[in-house]
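Lab notebook, bench 4. The sequencing result for the construct came back, and we need a structural model before the next group meeting so we can plan mutations. Quick request posted to the team channel:

Model the 3D structure of this chain.
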Amino acid sequence: MSFMIEEKVEKESFGYALGSFFWELLKAFILAIVIIVPIRYFVVQPFFVRGASMEPNFHDGEYLVIDQLSYRFREPKRGEVIVFRYPQDHSQFFIKRVIGLPGEDIRIVDGHVMIQSSAFPAGVEIEESAYLASEVRTGGQTDMHLGDGEYFILGDNRPASSDSRTWGTVSRDEIIGRAWIRAWPLNRILLFYPPSPRFLSAA
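Done. Here's the predicted structure in token form:
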């Protein structure tokens, strides 16, 4: 009788331990969901670069962390690299650089990108040496007015980029966020800061 009582106590103890283990596992899972999911969908999001349209600044296979929070409090800035839904197919995500802002007129003439706005009524050339080599020219003959919430975007690899020169502007609600951290490869880890716009002399 003593043996059977001890056996029963051991079985109940094991069952309690097993139940406690699964309960703790469930709590950890729920906690992870509560913390990670909002961060994943509202704060930061990971993306892999595919293709060569942003070379030499971003290469195929690089792993980026996208800041989705900043644009909840401010608008995208000229020069920032953004991830957005492709206007012609929202299931695809593209990465390009913001060049023209809402309300501006964008002109591409002889390889140079010009903007005209209330701030620059005579027109001014965008100075892009921070991310483009001096020999790079922007092809195409573009003359476009940007409406409210419209952005003109270009790839850094201008000869090999499909962008606003081809399929038009990107709307504000199609923009997911800005490139914040390049996390891979390790030898190219970099934190990206919002750029300070620079211009050449008025046209």
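The chain has two domains: 1-44, 49-202.
Will bring this to the meeting.
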